[in-house]
Structures are given as structure tokens and as C-alpha cells.
């Protein structure tokens, strides 16, 4: 193949432009497959995002349940019902900056529940108090030994 010879009638100071057919061929390719793959990729990332958010929500609920459980145990050991403690203080008020339950803050909430709601501490149970037997014991054991049993 021969190179085109420059036109001798043209001005030598003007550069000759060469025609390149490659850029026209590149422009003719349809961009639709790129859009489809980018849509699929975007959908994949959206699904991953939704899954991650759902997992985050499940873990947050689990942590909150564990915190409530620990607060309930501390309140119960202090002799106050946990519902009374939760009525006067929010969960976030009894949790430290690191997310762990702060026993001092729970103790303050227990004190506040006692003062605000008039909650009395649970006393130690005394066995037999308040229980009256239905049948009084018979002092004569010989007589009761030969009697028919009553139901």
C-alpha cells in the first residue's frame, strides 16, 4: 500500500488531516449491555445493603434485650420490680457510653422508682405466715389411728 501523496497545489504550511475510521466504529456499538450490567450490579449492592441493615437491626434488638435482662436482674436483686424501674428511667439512661449496663445508674433508677412510685422493697418470705390449716391436729393420736380416714 502506498501512502497518499501530498497535493502539490495545497499550501505547505497547512497540515494534512488523516481520516481515521476507528473512532466511528467505536461510536456505533450500543451502550445498552453496559447499562444492564450496571443495573444488575447496583441491584446486587442494594440487596447487600438491605441484608446488612436487617442484620444490624437484629443485632441491635438482641443487644437491647440483653441490656434489659441485665437491668431486670439488678432491679430484682434490689427488691424492686423491673417494670417500676423501666417506668421511671429509659434504657439509654441506665447504659453507659460504651453500651454496657452501668450498675450505679440502675441503682439510681431503683432509688428513683422507690421515691417516685412509693415502691416498697420486697421482704424476705416468712414460711407459714398467713397460712391457716384447714384441719386442726387431733391431740389424741390413738383415737385418730383407728378412725376411718376423711378426705
Tell me what you see in this structure.
This protein has 151 residues and is an all-alpha fold. It has five helices and no strands. The chain has helices spanning 22-27, 32-77, 82-88, 103-117, 141-146. The model has no long low-confidence stretch (mean pLDDT 78).
| Contiguous helical run count | 5
Could you tell me the number of beta strands? 0
Topology order in helix (H) and strand (E) letters: HHHHH
Oligomeric form? single chain
Write the layout of secondary structure elements.
Blueprint: H1 22-27, H2 32-77, H3 82-88, H4 103-117, H5 141-146
Descriptive tags:
151 residues, mainly alpha, elongated
Produce a short descriptive summary.
The protein is an all-alpha fold and about 150 residues long.
